[in-house]
Structures are given as structure tokens and as C-alpha cells.
Amino acid sequence: MSFTSASHLSWSVFDIAGLERGLSQKEQESSDPDLWQNPARAQQVLQEMARGRRTVDSWLKLETGITELIELASLAGDDTALQGEIEQEAQALARRLDAKEQELRLRGPYDSRNALLALHAGAGGTEAQDWVSMLLRMYLRWAERRGYKAEVLEMTAGDEAGIKSVLVEVQGDYTYGYLRAEHGVHRLVRLSPFDATHARHTSFALAEVMPEAEATIDTNIPQDEMKVETFRSSGPGGQHMQKTSSAVRITHMPTGITVACQGERSQHQNREVALRILQARLLEHELHRQAEERAKLKGKHLPAAWGNQIRSYVLHPYKMVKDHRTGQETSNAAAVLDGEIDDFIEAQLRSQISVD
Q1: Which of 40, 246, 280, 291 is deepest in the core (most CB within 10 A)?
Q2: Model confidence, pTM
Q3: Side-chain-facing half-sphere of 144: CA atoms under 13 Å
């Protein structure tokens, strides 16, 4: 498909005028004084307005870039230098257009939100913990490539090497929509750097992806449903040992969900982060409950999460990364582990559309 025809396809599929009408309606709703008697609804309207405006502005900016490039191309004539610049700009615009077309597939109710990514070491001991550190680097590099902000909120180091578990907040438009394709078990096959005989080992790690909860909309947690405890943060001994109880653990009594945070310097900061994690966990809990209810109605059995091996990364005796859900694969394992996972995410998003 040519660059011009692709742009016409995108604009015909994405109704910018319709979204602008929707924004106008939201603006009218936000100006209604009665709206603010319901703070949760008011917050939701403002957030929907902000997301919609960012989406419209990005499409309009892309449309302007295409129009200007077409006009410039008509003036280029035989100027080879200018033609080269136009070609480079056209390729850059095409990449931006592809990214916007990807967003058209992200129509879930939480897809536009920030994401919380949790990685847990599975079977494999130190090998699995080292595998978690490799996955963490992969996702941090992916976020960097896409211009997202990624922050490690909580981490538990491995006994000898690597990471037992880590929680990362990824901020940016549609981060949850993209990352939810990564939820599941990731399997690594390689020659062990921790084995004196350099034998081949298989390791497993679980990736959990949750949409960031919007507290005033999704989870208004009554205080009497939460048990808040403080304890001393673990860390280096000697003079650096924590002498105050700055770490925070929050238990949601009705569900038994417990989260803890000790990564921040103050108890107040740790409590805020722990509450955000708990809100996301409760939202995930509710989504899982709804999915189970739908599965019962359909008469299907949902396998346990640890049975959902979604992707294998083989580094020996050959190099290959293969997604078992879509069949997407590549022999460039080094690039994948350096964050080039968009092809796998794309394939999974396409497969979900075909299933729906």
C-alpha cells in the first residue's frame, strides 16, 4: 500500500470529526455545575476529555505533516537533495501513521491507561531470577524506544543474582493496551552462566500486566477495609540500616490482597505507592472475576496463569524467539531482548481482533 493510500485509509477509519463532536459534548458536560456534585463522574469526564484531545491533536498534527510533505514534493522538481529529504520525512511520517493505526486496535475500556508491569521468577532458581532481570531490561528498553516513562516501584533482589520480583509503572498513551499482550509465562532456554558445567537450562518467569486504576472512578476503598502496617525497610547493614519504620504494607481485608512498598524514603511516599498498587490489584481482581463469569457462561475452562506459556526465547542450541499464541518468530533474539518486541505485540493484537 502506498503512503498516500495508507493515509486515506486511516482517516476513513478514524472519525476525527466524530471524536471532536464527542469532545464538545464532554466540554458541555464539564461546564454543568451539577456535575461537580459527583466528583467521581467529574474526574472521569475530565480524563476522557484529556485523552480524546491528545488523540485528536496527534492525528491532526500527522495530517498537517502529510499535507505539507505533499506540497513540498510538488515543488521538488529535479532537486535530488530535496527529494532525499522528502523521502526521509515520508518514511518518518509513515512510521508515525503505522503507530496511530495500531492504536485503532486498542478499543478496550482500559487500553488508553498507564500500565503496571510485574515480573516474577518461576521455576529455575537463580537462573529464573536472572531471567527476570533480563526481561526487566527488555521492557525498559521497549519503553524507552517508544518514548514512554518507566519507573521501578518495587523490587526484590535474588538470593545470589538477578531479581525475584519487580513492579514497574509504565506511563504513556495506550501503554496498557500494548503491554497486556505480554501477560503470561515467558520461557528461556540457554547455556547457564551459573553452572560450572555450562549445561543447558530452562527458566520461567511470569509477566503480569495491570491497568493503572483511577482511584476516584475504579476503586474507592473504604478505610475500614484496609489494614495498614509499617515495618523497617530491608537494606544494607551497619550505619545504613533503616532505623525508622518507613516501609508500608496494606492488606485489603475483603479479598486478602496484600501489597507492600519500601522503595521510597518516607513512610508517606511508601503508603501512596502501596495504595496505587493495591488499587491496580483490585481492578485486576475485578476484571478477572468478570472474565471467569463470562467463561462459565460460555462453558469454557480458564487454565491457571502459570500454564499460559506464551513465548519461548531460545539462545542455545540455536537462536529463536517464538510466540506460541500467534506463531510469530524471529532468529534475532538479541534484538528482542534489547526491546524490539513490537512485532510480537502487533501479532497478538491482530489475533485478538480476529477472535473477537
Answers
A1: 280
A2: 0.70
A3: 9
